Predict the structure of Pyruvate dehydrogenase E1 component subunit beta.
Amino acid sequence: MSADPKVFLMGEEVGEYQGAYKISNRAPGEVGPDKVLDTPITEVGLIS
């Protein structure tokens, strides 16, 4: 993620809450908070 400026992580609770089982807990510190984006937790707001 840090090598490619086009790659980022986006999902429910991956930023502030660090994802399920803390899977993304180091991501904001390693690649920067602008590459780890939280999405809304809502069934209506999800797009496949």
